[in-house]
Amino acid sequence: MKFGFFSSEFSDQGTADDGWFLYKSPANWALFSNSKSETSSFVAGALLSILSTLILLVGNVVAFCIIYSCGNIISLFSLTFVVGIPKQIKTMFAPVRFWATIIYISLLALTLAMSIWLKNFALSIVLVCVQFAALVWYS
């Protein structure tokens, strides 16, 4: 009599060894595709936000603020590939996150508007720092 993992008593034995058993049936391929889309959009958004600092080193504040904010927007909405837009919006505006969401979205818009129209270096940097603080609070 075999014991433990190699036992044939249970019909689901061997499904946890490779981790890809969920994606072998066509019914779950959409979940796998959505997970890849979510991961790639989150990584793209994070890369945009990180690489925007290189643009800041060059001294182009407007481009920095635009690319940084767009990276945050892409990262924020990357989860919609998995949970869908209605559930994402419902989660964002849940009572626990309501004010954090309002402040974060307002700061995204304010950062973009002030950096494009005023082109003030100090104000743009302050807004990006406050935007980052709001993102941490949102998380």
Helical segment count: 6
Give the total of beta strands.
Answer: 0
Number of domains: 1
Approximately how much helix is present in the residues?
55-70%
Q: Over the alpha carbons, how many angstroms does the gyration radius reach?
A: 21 Å
Strand content: under 5%
Low-pLDDT runs = 1-27
**Strand/helix succession:** HHHHHH
Provide the residue-averaged pLDDT. Answer: 76
Return the structural class.
mainly alpha
- Give a quick account of the main beta sheet: strands, pairing sense, barrel closure: none
Molecular shape: globular
Function: Nonessential protein required for the fusion of transport vesicles derived from the endocytic pathway with the Golgi complex.
Keywords: Golgi apparatus, Membrane, Protein transport, Transmembrane, Transmembrane helix, Transport
Organism: Parasitella parasitica
Pfam families: Got1 (PF04178)
Tell me what you see in this structure:
This protein is an all-alpha fold. It has one domain. The chain contains six helices and no strands. It has helices spanning 29-58, 61-76, 80-83, 85-92, 98-117, 121-138. Helix 5 packs antiparallel against helix 6. Its main location: Golgi. Belongs to the SFT2 family.
Q: What descriptors fit this protein?
A:
single chain, about 140 residues, mainly alpha, about 70% helix, globular, disordered N terminus
Q: What's the helix and strand layout?
A:
Layout: H1 29-58, H2 61-76, H3 80-83, H4 85-92, H5 98-117, H6 121-138
Protein name: Protein transport protein SFT2
Subcellular location: Golgi apparatus membrane; Membrane
GO biological process, one term: protein transport
